[in-house]
Amino acid sequence: xxxxxxxxxxxxxxxxxxxxxxxxxxxxxxxxxxxxxxxxxxxxxxxxxxxxxxxxxxxxxxxxxxxxxxxxxxxxxxxxxxxxxxxxxxxxxxxxxxxxxxxxxxxxxxxxxxxxxxxxxxxxxxxxxxxxxxxxxxxxxxxxxxxxxxxxxxxxxxxxxxxxxxxxxxxxxxxxxxxxxxxxxxxxx
Length: 189
Description:
The chain is of the alpha+beta class. The protein contains five helices and nine strands, in the order ββββββαβββαααα. The termini are far apart. About 15% of the residues are buried.
């Protein structure tokens, strides 16, 4: 099965045309009887869809930000088995819903129930893009902390406060929760 290797709004080099472009839309190609797309192409606003091998990612900002071991989370599209494509014409990608894969072996991740997606598909699409971007955002935040730490107190006070907030959040992310009465309490409505 095909997997998206680029993300929406990612800057790529279009080899055959010789220009930089932005991924405007990820276009999964479905085949009857398959739960995943058989091919993924990319609309970069140049009049036709391009396959992954025709595009190269921008070297630099993204690669540097992820160099400290941040995982690569991917946004995939799953076929909506509960609604026909014509019944979901108001969805951003009719007939599909987003699935965020957070493991290299395509295990684990985030998905949403079909009824919830149908209620507000634009909100769910935003959440999927946000979750997919979290490792990159965390890497960027850690770079800010590193830059402030290396500034030897010369960073603006507001930036120092932001770096302190980032450090607190980062510690929270890495903390192992302790089970206790508050963690095990279940409230029944």
